């Protein structure tokens, strides 16, 4: 079923290029600003979290937008990745492995653990229809949070210890890695903006290649009409599970990036609110729209900081902005105007539509 | 159909999020503030981060108000420099706290007062350590705050220190008591104190007759926890928790006719001002807190009056901590003999040397407070008992 190549770019390709474009352009501009010293330290401190949130949003979009299942526990996978990454990085740190290698090992381990968690949860749940995935992922996020609250781990000359008790025999000069409700402390902050950029590109590469493949079309077919997809021999369960596992693994990767950017990480950070925040990125950016998720993640991470001048009314303004964006992007009148505009100016290959209202410059 | 539903569902969820976001921001007061200053004068920029919105906002707001009173007093006095104070909201979240700190850096912060809560403070102190900025926290009590960082100091006791001191006090005042503890095992503060308390008791050959926990998510019913304390025959119950759950525990204990001695720590401070709480339930509760607003001390009385005039409420321990911290910064800065035109990096080492040197401070939360090089404070713990709805020194 080879599609005949049309003039210009297919919509898939076009969206793909926009996503890569945003990432590369963003990286180039930021690097340039950084080297000229024009970047405020407020923005500079947000670079790595922004990358992490982009990874989270794009990976969640794979489940919510493309596979059509609602997941409310994405922060749970982030936390699995983050804590795995912190443990791996902490252990490797004591043997004196170089930072880039440590980071790479942490990312791989975090992605594998989170992917495994997603796989195990997906097996029973994705067989069900309806919104069971939402309920189970919600519960998963809470369970992970509560488990992390009782895990103590450390490393000393006798090796690695892990326990659910606070007095687990770590020698005094040992290094505490996880400390129950106090979370991870004394984390070496080895995440950098460059690593963040690389991971964003990896995420985009994975998600967009899935999207633009036979597998991706199968996933979307299962979303759009399960019965029709089954009737042509697609294994719905298998397809959804694949999307869900990949998404979890990518979320774990984002978690590692996030976790290794701060010296401390409390389990409570990965609560329901964080899951919802990521869902907000996806919904606001448009379900299934990869670059929309990226833009939403960037804007909604920077916005609360940029609104600090409003002091008391900061979160109020933030909420109002969210509502306005929601209304604006879903408003048919505004949408038709935007598409008329892009018809007129951006797609020159097509026959020009009759002049719309508003003057041309 | 499915997509339709999804859309609707997400819209509903989003609206909920917004309502929460708006609710969270209501009732807070102040995001940033400035002490009066003249641009021609020498100004020391003191920046703070703390929760001004969200569940922990009462702590951040109290610290802010206390510190502002101190800054106003300093600026009104005959000083060679003024203090400009600004506090940024961090919602008690490490990530937001680091963002807030970077915002303060853009503003030109020279000394950091904060953070108010432990998680935020650990995250921020890692940044200040790297940037070489002098930091002193009024209330972040975990040992991780100062651990391995020579530039970070605490005005409050560390949690382990508090737990240890509480154990010593308990053994001194009630040598024969059967001791039990109810604590929140998903809270760093509560767990930190409890672990140190237990370790100290056991080091002296005493055992806890019961140790019961509750998680963060359930804070409506503690009858099971109380029953197990009662059936273990405990006549002293340690409550290393915050006052909201403690108020429920006191109520339920009195309902079931169980009246052991309750021994709280500084987290219990504020229970008497709690709305809808019958203060007679807290009668005879003992607590170890650094600040007693009903104290006869002249300075305390003056501070309480000023605070009440400005904000219409009784200052709690966090307000007093904020006040003291601002004064410590001021005194240390004066003692180090520096000028305000220096950068934060240049100030840092000199201020560290000054505070760990021959420096002592008498404040609202302790007399002759001194600091060691590991950043912890040394001052006498104060145990008070609640009588007639007031603290009474023991």
CATH architecture of the largest domain in chain B: 3-Layer(aba) Sandwich
Structural class determined from secondary elements of chain A: mainly alpha
Count of discrete domains of chain B: 2
- The domain count of chain A comes to 1
Strand order of the largest sheet of chain B: 7-6-8-9-10-14-15
Helix content, binned percent of chain A: 55-70%
Query: Radius of gyration of chain B, Cα only, in angstroms?
Result: 22 Å
Q: Count every helix of chain B, treating DSSP H or I runs of 4 or more residues as helices.
A: 11
**3D shape of chain A:** globular
Describe the overall structure.
- The complex is a heterodimer of chains A (361) and B (394).
- Chain A is mainly alpha-helical.
- Chain A has one domain: ABC transporter involved in vitamin B12 uptake, BtuC, CATH 1.10.3470.
- Chain A has a three-stranded antiparallel beta sheet with strand order 2-1-3, with helices on one face.
- In chain A, helix 1 runs parallel beside helix 11, helix 3 packs parallel to helix 5 and helix 3 crosses helix 9.
- The longest helix of chain A is centred in the N-terminal third of the chain and has 27 residues.
- The C terminus of chain A is likely disordered.
- Chain B has 394 residues and is an alpha/beta fold.
- Chain B folds into two domains: 196 residues, 3-Layer(aba) Sandwich (Rossmann fold), CATH 3.40.50.2300; 130 residues, 3-Layer(aba) Sandwich (Rossmann fold), CATH 3.40.50.
- Chain B is 44% helix and 19% strand.
- Chain B contains eleven helices and 15 strands.
- In chain B, the strands form three sheets. Chain B has a seven-stranded mixed beta sheet, sandwiched between helices. In chain B, strands 2-1-3-4-5 form a five-stranded parallel beta sheet, sandwiched between helices. A three-stranded antiparallel beta sheet of chain B has the order 11-12-13, covered by helices on one side.
- In chain B, strand 8, helix 8 and strand 9 form a beta-alpha-beta unit.
- In chain B, helix 2 packs across helix 10 and helix 5 crosses helix 6.
- Chain B starts with a helix and ends with a strand.
- The relative contact order of chain B is 0.12.
- At the A-B interface, helix 2, helix 10 and helix 12 of A face helix 1, helix 3, helix 4 and helix 6 of B.
């Amino acid at each position: 079923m080879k599609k005949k190549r049309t003039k210009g770019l297919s919509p898939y390709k076009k969206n793909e290029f926009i996503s890569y474009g945003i990432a590369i352009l963003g990286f180039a501009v930021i690097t340039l600003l950084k080297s000229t010293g024009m970047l405020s330290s407020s923005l500079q401190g947000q670079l790595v979290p922004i990358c992490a949130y982009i990874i989270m949003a794009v990976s969640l979009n794979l489940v919510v937008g493309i596979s059509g299942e609602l997941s409310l526990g994405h922060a749970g996978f982030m936390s699995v990745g983050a804590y795995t990454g912190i443990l791996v990085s902490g252990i490797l740190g004591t043997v004196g492995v170089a930072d880039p290698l440590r980071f790479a090992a942490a990312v791989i381990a975090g992605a594998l653990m989170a992917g495994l968690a997603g796989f195990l949860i997906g097996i029973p749940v994705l067989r069900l229809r309806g919104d069971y995935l939402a309920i189970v992922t919600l519960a998963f996020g809470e369970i992970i949070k509560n488990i992390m609250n009782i895990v103590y781990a450390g490393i000393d000359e006798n090796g690695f210890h892990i326990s659910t008790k606070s007095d687990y025999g770590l020698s005094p000069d040992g290094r505490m890695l996880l400390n129950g409700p106090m979370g991870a402390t004394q984390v070496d902050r080895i995440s950098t903006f460059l690593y963040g950029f690389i991971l964003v590109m990896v995420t985009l590469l994975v998600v967009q290649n899935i999207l633009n493949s036979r597998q991706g079309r199968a996933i979307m077919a299962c979303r759009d009409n399960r019965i029709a997809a089954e009737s042509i021999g697609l294994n719905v369960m298998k397809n959804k599970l694949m999307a869900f596992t990949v998404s979890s693994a990518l979320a774990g990767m984002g978690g590692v990036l996030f976790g290794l950017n701060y010296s401390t990480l409390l389990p409570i950070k990965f609560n329901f609110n964080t899951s919802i925040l990521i869902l907000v990125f996806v919904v606001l950016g448009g379900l299934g729209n990869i670059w929309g998720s990226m833009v939403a993640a960037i804007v909604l991470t920077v916005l609360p900081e940029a609104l600090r001048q409003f002091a008391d009314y900061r979160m109020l303004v933030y909420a109002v902005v969210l509502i306005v964006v929601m209304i604006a992007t879903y408003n048919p009148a505004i949408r038709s105007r935007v598409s008329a505009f892009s018809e007129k100016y951006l797609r020159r290959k097509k026959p020009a539509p009759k002049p719309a209202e508003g003057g041309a410059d | 159909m499915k997509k339709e539903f999804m859309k609707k569902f997400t819209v509903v969820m989003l609206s909920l999020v917004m309502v929460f976001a708006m609710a969270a921001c209501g009732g807070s007061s102040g995001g940033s503030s400035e002490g009066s200053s003249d641009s021609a004068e020498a100004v020391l920029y003191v920046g703070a981060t703390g929760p001004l919105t969200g569940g922990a906002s009462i702590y951040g707001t109290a610290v802010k108000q206390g510190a502002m009173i101190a800054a106003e007093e300093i600026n009104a006095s005959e000083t060679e420099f003024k203090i400009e104070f600004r506090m940024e909201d961090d919602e008690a979240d490490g990530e937001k706290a680091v963002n807030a700190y970077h915002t303060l850096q853009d503003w030109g912060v020279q000394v950091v007062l904060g953070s108010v809560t432990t998680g935020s403070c650990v995250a921020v102190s890692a940044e200040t350590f790297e940037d070489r900025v002098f930091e002193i926290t009024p209330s972040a009590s975990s040992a991780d705050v100062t651990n391995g960082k020579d530039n970070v100091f605490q005005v409050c006791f560390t949690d382990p220190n508090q737990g240890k001191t509480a154990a010593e006090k308990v053994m001194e005042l009630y040598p024969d008591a059967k001791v039990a503890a109810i604590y929140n095992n998903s809270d760093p503060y509560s767990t930190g104190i409890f672990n140190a308390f237990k370790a100290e008791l056991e080091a002296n050959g005493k055992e806890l007759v019961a140790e019961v926990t509750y998680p963060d998510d359930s804070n409506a019913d503690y009858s099971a926890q109380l029953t197990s304390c009662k059936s273990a025959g405990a006549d002293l119950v340690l409550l290393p928790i915050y006052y909201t759950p403690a108020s429920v525990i006191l109520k339920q204990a009195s309902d079931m006719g169980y009246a052991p001695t309750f021994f709280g720590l500084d987290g219990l401070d504020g229970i008497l001002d709690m709305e809808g709480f019958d203060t007679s339930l807290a009668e005879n509760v003992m607590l170890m807190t650094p600040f007693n607003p009903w104290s006869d001390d002249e300075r305390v009385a003056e501070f309480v009056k000023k605070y009440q005039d400005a904000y219409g409420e009784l200052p709690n321990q966090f307000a007093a901590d904020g006040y003291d911290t601002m004064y410590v910064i001021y005194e240390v800065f004066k003692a180090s003999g520096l000028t305000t035109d220096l950068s934060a990096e240049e100030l840092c080492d000199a201020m560290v040397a000054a505070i760990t040197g021959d420096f002592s401070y008498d404040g609202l939360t302790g007399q002759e407070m001194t600091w060691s090089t590991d950043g912890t404070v040394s001052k006498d713990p104060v145990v008070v008992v609640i009588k007639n709805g007031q603290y009474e020194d023991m």
